[in-house]
Amino acid sequence: MDQNSRRNILLVGLILGMFFSALDQTVVGTAMPRIIGELGGLDILSWVTTAYMLTSTTFVPIAGKLADIYGRRIMYVSGLGLFMLGSALCGTSENMTQLIIYRGLQGIGGGILMPMAMTIVGDVFWVAMFIILFGIFISFFMENIKVEKQPGGIISKEKPVESGAK
């Protein structure tokens, strides 16, 4: 496999990771009031979002330092794994406390994914190409925000949310 093919595969993988992170912030964010209503915790709705934002923001510099020590690939794959684990656990939440904790775990993964994607692109591509790809990544992320709120609204409106809460 030549160098360009490897870079293209890497780029697709990074974009997919960013896609799932953006998907979480848009589709799930739109459906979150319904999910929280099913779990009976509208009074602590803000904690679900705050847990994600706080942990993701906190882990950006930590992930950068750990990536310098252990390598970018390990950190990116770890972030993706934590993000997916947190997402799966959020789907199994039976009460608001579990949902808040699992969203915090998901936030750790999200806080690793986004900056690692940019760092890896900066390491692999030359500066002019990095600027172009950074613009593409940002525009891709912004398009997701515009388009993916609709599926979240449709899911939360038409499909009942299953939960173990009584």
Automatic annotation (TrEMBL):
GO terms for cellular component: plasma membrane. Residues 10-166 form the Major facilitator superfamily (MFS) profile domain. InterPro entries: MFS, MFS_dom, MFS_trans_sf, Sugar_transporter_CS. Keywords: Membrane, Transmembrane, Transmembrane helix, Transport. It is a multi-pass membrane protein. It is found in: Cell membrane. It comes from the Bacteria. One of its GO terms (molecular function) is transmembrane transporter activity. The chain crosses the membrane at residues 9-32, 44-62, 74-92, 112-141. The keyword Membrane applies. Pfam families: MFS_1. The keyword Methyltransferase does not apply. This is MFS transporter. It comes from Carboxydothermus islandicus.
